[in-house]
Amino acid sequence: MPLYTSQHLKIYNSLSGEKENFKPIHEGNVGMYVCGPTVYSNVHLGNVRTFMSFDVIFRYFLHLDYKVRYVRNITDVGHIVDDVDEGEDKIAKKARLEQLEPMEVVQRYTVDFHDILKAFNFLPPSIEPTATGHIIEQIEIIKKIIDTGIGYEANGSVYFDVVKYNETNNYGILSGRNIEDMLANTRDLDGQSDKRNPQDFALWKKAEPEHIMRWPSPWSDGFPGWHLECTAMSTKYLGNHFDIHGGGMDLKFPHHECEIAQNEACTGQSPVNYWMHANMLTLNGKKMAKSTGNNILPGEILSGDNTVLSKPFSASVTRFFMLQAHYRSILDFSDDAVTAAEKGYKRLMEALDALPAISAGTSSSIDFAAWKQLCYDAMNDDFNTPILIAHLFEGVRYINLLKEGKETISAEDLKSFSTAINAFVFDVLGLSDEKAADSNNDKLEGVVNMLISMRNQARADKNFVLSDQIRDQLIALGIQLKDGKEGTTFSI
User: Fold this and answer.
1) One GO molecular function term (predicted)?
2) How far apart are CA 131 and CA 167, in angstroms?
3) Alpha-helical regions (H) of 206-334
4) Which DSSP letter does residue 133 get?
């Protein structure tokens, strides 16, 4: 029997503003789309927090035995500076400033994105599509929207007529904005604009002669609007109607609002059952911004190469810190807060390390089944990780009492308790036991150094077949040897 049949999950739906019982469209299956990064710079810490929130959500669905298709895109074209329709593509601008091909910029920062998420122990999504890989699908959607009369072409560009759409639909249904108020608070269009209304947004932009990133279309050589890519990729891989769409709070308007409008104009139905939004991250009580210097990159936390923190902090400690706040609440990052999280993380790991040595008795003096359900209740309440962590520390208290002989546990309860607490810590929260990892690294280093010594002896004995064999087999395992004046070193 799948675990999800005995657990009753509630999700806060941004569309209704309420927690709702989760019921997937197809029983036992979850389709989830999350807006990924625009790869024109190093992934920032706020992005990591958002993606971490959905990583935990993904993990919990898997833990509940759902079959999950998790789609998280890469935006590699079409995202205009300042999130408007006029101006320069963020990637093209970066390429121009650094005198690179746009795809060199994309490659550099996509690799950075993956490296950082791997360091923080994220599970990869089921599918990670790119905007440039779905130009054809985007053009087809534009054609459909034009056929409805809601899309219109002007001088080679195509726009979405928000006012016409609003005659039969509700533009603002997600963000709670009123179109009349939006129009009243927007300055009149100047004579240079091709838009009918100030709130109209681009589906396709005609490329200026100097614009490098361009594709042929029925209207012009150009590129798709930013909002269109997510409509194309989410519906391609999840269908016109799917379970969950997530992203940062800053994407609710206009990006997600425009997605809803595009989907409804194209398919005649609302695309998503549950809209989920993760809140922002501040640094020392202030908004994070490169321009003010109040900023820190994820890699700088791990290396300690920053002016914000007193020392380096590990990925697991940073992850543990972030999960101590609910994904819908603002989280403030500071040296004191992460230092406190580090102490809590070490307490948790020490207790888990001690758990295998606990002996079972004939009966339990604690209701471990009730504790286990409290952990599930926390996650079932809109993925409430801080409440889960509080219950995990209650589990730590139980472990210490059992160690001291002040409480007893039956063999059956010990197995269930051990399985549950490890599953919540490692599988659901995605933490790692760094002490165990360090121990494994020390063992690996010892084994490699032993093989290097054997190789050096083989070379001294002129047994070059054996020395080359050792080198080649290490390379096949991803371990690169480097011979220098100081001797032989290795890297992984």
Assistant:
1) ligase activity
2) 30
3) 226-238, 257-267, 298-303, 315-322
4) G
Which residues are bridge partners to 34 per DSSP? 72, 246
**Are residues 29 and 242 in contact, defined by beta-carbon separation less than 8 angstroms?**
no
Q: Strands 29-34 and 67-72: what pairing? A: parallel
Tokens of 180: 């009349």
Residues 347 and 393: beta-carbon distance below 8 Å: yes
The SS3 of residue 343 is helix
Which range (45-49, 152-156, 185-189, 394-398) has the least confidence? 185-189
Q: Tell me the pairing of strands 242-248 and 29-34.
A: parallel
Contacts of residues 379-383 at CB distance under 8 Å and 24 or more positions apart, as own/partner, are 379/9, 379/60, 379/428, 380/7, 380/8, 380/9, 380/10, 381/10, 381/19, 382/10, 382/11, 382/12, 382/19, 382/326, 382/328, 383/11, 383/53, 383/56, 383/57, 383/60, 383/326, 383/327
In whole angstroms, give the CA distance from residue 168 to residue 358: 65
State yes or no: 255 annotated in a binding site: yes
Q: Tell me the pTM.
A: 0.87
Whether the ω angle into residue 102 lies within 30 degrees of 0, i.e. cis, is no
Q: Residue 193 and residue 205: Cα distance in Å, rounded?
A: 12
Structure tokens at 268: 């005649």
290 is in an annotated binding site: yes
Environment class of 170 (CB within 10 Å of its CB; exposed 0-12, middle 13-18, buried 19+): middle
Query: What pLDDT digit, counting tens, does each position of 59-92 carry?
Result: 999 999 999 999 999 999 877 665 566 677 888 8
Is 27 in a helix, a strand, or coil? coil
Amino acid at 26: H
Identity of the residue numbered 432: S
Decide: helix, strand or coil at residue 212: coil
Helix (H) or strand (E) holding 242: strand 242-248
Q: Is 205 annotated as a binding residue?
A: no
Is 266 annotated in a binding site? The answer is no
